[in-house]
């Protein structure tokens, strides 16, 4: 009887310890990236993704995604990895560093101007951790400047807001007309 009580308490103690380890281990990685980045006229841009991960990760993965979640490039590395290349939609050169990962992306053109997000994941050893940066607007030298892209977005937002306001006004007039007709028919009876 006493042995079973000790076993049961030990089980709860181990379970509590595991839960505590999991809770403490799931702290996200903070990822920092510049707000704007200008690609050169050859269509090359180097995005530096800085992070606060100081643990002893055996394996980290970096993924660069566009606003629409399209994967641009990714790669897995560890503390002994030398720079390496990947091929996805763009040709990428990934260079791990102390507290950052530099990703040089080749093949930008005017249709590629967009926000790019850097995602870092601690893959091994467990416990899994991840973090996503706030995004970098990458544009090409001599093409649209970030302020003009922001103005385009503001113009689109204004047009949508104006359209919704007109639609709401029409619905308001329609509601008033229906109420007036209904009230007039009740008064006539």
CATH topology of the largest domain: Immunoglobulin-like
Structural class: alpha+beta
**Percentage of residues in DSSP E strands:** 35-45%
Domain unit count = 2
Classified by CATH, the class of the largest domain is Mainly Beta
Order of helices and strands: HEEEEEEEEEEEH
Termini distance? 87 Å
What's the CATH H-level superfamily name of the largest domain? Immunoglobulins
Overall outline: flat
For the sheet with most strands, the description reads: 6 strands, mixed
Individual helix count: 2
Question: Overall mean pLDDT score?
Answer: 78
- Helix % is 25-40%
Q: What oligomeric state best describes the polypeptide chains here?
A: single chain
The number of strands is 11
Q: Examine the secondary-structure arrangement and name the CATH architecture of the largest domain.
A: Sandwich
From the alpha-carbon coordinates, what is the Rg to the nearest angstrom? 27 Å
**Uncertain ranges:** 14-22
Question: Which keywords apply here?
Answer:
35% strand, 6-stranded mixed sheet, alpha+beta, 5-stranded antiparallel sheet, Immunoglobulin-like, 189 residues
Kindly describe this structure.
Strand 9 (114-124) and strand 10 (129-132) form a beta hairpin. The protein is an alpha+beta fold and 189 residues long. The chain contains two helices and eleven strands, in the order αβββββββββββα. The protein folds into two domains: 27-144, Immunoglobulins (Immunoglobulin-like, Sandwich), CATH 2.60.40.10; 145-189.
């Amino acid at each position: 009887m006493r042995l079973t009580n000790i076993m049961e308490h030990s089980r709860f103690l181990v379970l509590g310890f595991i839960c505590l380890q999991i809770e403490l281990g799931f702290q996200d990685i903070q990822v920092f990236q510049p707000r704007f980045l200008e690609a050169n006229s050859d269509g090359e841009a180097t995005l530096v993704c800085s992070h606060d991960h100081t643990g002893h990760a055996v394996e980290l993965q970096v993924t660069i995604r566009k606003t629409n979640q399209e994967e641009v490039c990714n790669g897995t590395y560890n503390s002994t990895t030398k720079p390496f290349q990947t091929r996805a939609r763009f040709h990428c050169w990934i260079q791990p560093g102390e507290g950052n990962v530099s990703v040089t992306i080749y093949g930008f053109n005017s249709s590629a101007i967009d926000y790019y997000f850097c995602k870092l994941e601690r893959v091994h050893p467990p416990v899994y951790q991840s973090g996503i940066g706030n995004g970098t607007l990458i544009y090409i030298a001599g093409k649209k400047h970030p302020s003009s892209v922001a103005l385009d977005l503001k113009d689109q937002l204004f047009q949508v807001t104006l359209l919704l306001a007109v639609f709401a006004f029409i619905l308001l007039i329609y509601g008033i007309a229906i109420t007036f007709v209904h009230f007039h028919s009740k008064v006539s009876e």
